[in-house]
Amino acid sequence: LSLALYAGSLCAASGAAFLYHDYCVIGAGPSGLQVAYFLQQAGRDYIVFERSHAPGSFFALYPRHRKLISINKQYTGKSNSEFNLRHDWNSLLSHDRRLLFRHYSRDFFPNADAMVHYLEDFASLLKLQVQYNTAIIHVTLERDEQAWNGHYFLLTDQDRQNYKCSSLLVATGTWVPNVVNFPGSEYVEGYETVSINPEDFAGQTVLILGRGNSAFETAENILGVTNFIHMVSRSRVRLSWATHYVGDLRAINNGLLDTYQLKSLDGLLEGDLEDLAIVKDKKGKLHITLRFYLENRNTSAGIDSITLPQDELDNFATRAPYDRVIRCLGWKFDFSIYNRSLRLMPGKGNNKKYPQIKPSYESRGTRGLFILGTASHSVDFRKSAGGFIHGFRYTTRAVHRLLENRHHGVPWPSTVYPITQLTNSIIKRVNEASGLYQMFSVLADIILLRENATAFEYLEEYPVGVLAELETQTGRRAPNGLFVIIMEYGRNFSGADKDVFYYNRAVGEAQHAWQSNFLHPVIYYYKHLPTEREMKLRPPDWPLPRPDAVHHIVEDFLTDWTAPNAHILPLRRFLENCLSTDLRNFFAESCFFFAFTRQKLPPFCQQGYVGMQGLLGSEGLRRHAVEAGLLEDYTPRDFSGDKTPDSREGSQDQLLKDHVIPVRPLQHLVNAKDE
């Protein structure tokens, strides 16, 4: 007994030792590897725990039928890598061009095995710090005023090894199957274990519980071999092309809709699954009834005496018995490993399968605990793409930038430009940026104006839900007003009951841009940074509070917002009205003229011509300006009205150089004029 107690005390002592890291990441799926990449690039102390022997273990099993619904577009007609990511929904962000998913599959809808291979290479080629075969089974807190967040996170794995970290990043996704318990639910097969061999369903009648992509994926696999398939769920089908939400039913899986609407035996039904009951007869057939009938029957009676709905309603929709019932209800977050001290609670309503988090992706209950990847989708559930790789690769980068500022004093990356580049900067981003495009209404570019609007600071892809906290979250100041650039669909264009193919659905004229339905850029202008109260009181379905001014760039069929008259000119005039300045570009001759006729020069002349900056004169540029009517033609001519011979044209460059007016005399003349 003494030896046993001594050995036990040694084990307890060894188990009490903590291995410390600044950042602990749970899960080596896509979001876990993505945040690991950013932490490694920043030189931070981190570790990723993965319960499996390889990264991306979820994709080793799911989807069961192996076809991903994330598009892998090989060609876009563009060479811009940032633009091409708009149509690459599988690649993670990195500096290594080898790690683009198009190098792993050429299929538009790739096989899931290619994703497993891709994630393995991403972790190995970038030498990410992943500890495999480590299942974290318990997480709790240890209060310490010296810690970054006032506490440490204590983690325990399956071997009772303990770890301590200052910040915890949870990237486990949602992997626990949603299960509905009702009488007879023991006869139901789960999506995670059901056979994927169509021959196993030959000549059978099947009922599928669920209405999402996994349910329709399962139906699509057996559609050609079954007697018929019925599908039941509490809500009507939501088509992704109508809702503009990629998590709703995609066209690649909707074959059952054809056979249902074209009356080929298959069908869809709506009903609360918790009200159902399944009864198995002596032949092994499964009958659908209602819980009500079972609760009111004589429990001592035989199975044949159970009342079925068709006994009272002889045309009851599911009166035909089924051979198999399959549950395809999706997944939820695993809350079981988190101690109550973390106060990590499930959301409410449709978000109950996700943990409660702030728009900054930080837990509402515990500072320093961030939720990444699919599990963070409560921020934009059924609104944007935050639950999928092509969305959360950008939200994960945003979380890393927030952490860099909070813990290491590294401000949010930004670039300062002269105000004359404002229009160009916006046009460039709305035409190229992938983060704005994928995370519409969630991530936005922020333009912070400098004093007197002489320059601006550009911040990319900031979470708009924490706009009121911009100064503390980014380390940047916004005392002089700001613009917010975001992508949006039309207010009333998306929804399960919307006809998105109606005639005249698109807007083509700039004056009607505010009525645009399809995804398009929207620019909000605020004279002051919105407050927390203003964020809470913003209009329903608005991503931002009511601004001092707003501008919609009209939707474009090619998503190419570079048309001079339809896109750029209205934007420039909006910016000029907000700033009370002239953002046009001018030739040197015009700036020289304004110096004698205006009290205030346009910014382009102030920062360019007066500063001896701008394009160097040449004969080609002069000729282009003359032909466009922007300059007078001062070329010497002979008496017949023709231009002088070509021998004189060769000296035009020298003439232009000789005609340059020095800065000092110009300033002297301007001052003399003012006097």
UniProtKB/TrEMBL annotation:
<dbReference type="GO" id="GO:0036503">
    <property type="term" value="P:ERAD pathway"/>
</dbReference>
<keyword id="KW-0325">Glycoprotein</keyword>
<dbReference type="GO" id="GO:0005788">
    <property type="term" value="C:endoplasmic reticulum lumen"/>
</dbReference>
<keyword id="KW-0274">FAD</keyword>
<comment type="similarity">
    <text>Belongs to the FOXRED2 family.</text>
</comment>
<keyword id="KW-0256">Endoplasmic reticulum</keyword>
<dbReference type="InterPro" id="IPR050982">
    <property type="entry name" value="Auxin_biosynth/cation_transpt"/>
</dbReference>
<protein>
    <recommendedName>
        <fullName>FAD-dependent oxidoreductase domain-containing protein 2</fullName>
    </recommendedName>
</protein>
<keyword id="KW-0285">Flavoprotein</keyword>
<dbReference type="GO" id="GO:0050660">
    <property type="term" value="F:flavin adenine dinucleotide binding"/>
</dbReference>
<comment type="subunit">
    <text>Interacts with SEL1L. May interact with OS9 and DNAJC10. Interacts with TXNDC16.</text>
</comment>
<keyword id="KW-0732">Signal</keyword>
<dbReference type="Pfam" id="PF13738">
    <property type="entry name" value="Pyr_redox_3"/>
</dbReference>
<dbReference type="GO" id="GO:0004497">
    <property type="term" value="F:monooxygenase activity"/>
</dbReference>
<comment type="function">
    <text>Probable flavoprotein which may function in endoplasmic reticulum associated degradation (ERAD). May bind non-native proteins in the endoplasmic reticulum and target them to the ubiquitination machinery for subsequent degradation.</text>
</comment>
<keyword id="KW-0560">Oxidoreductase</keyword>
<dbReference type="InterPro" id="IPR036188">
    <property type="entry name" value="FAD/NAD-bd_sf"/>
</dbReference>
<feature type="region of interest" description="Disordered">
    <location>
        <begin position="636"/>
        <end position="657"/>
    </location>
</feature>
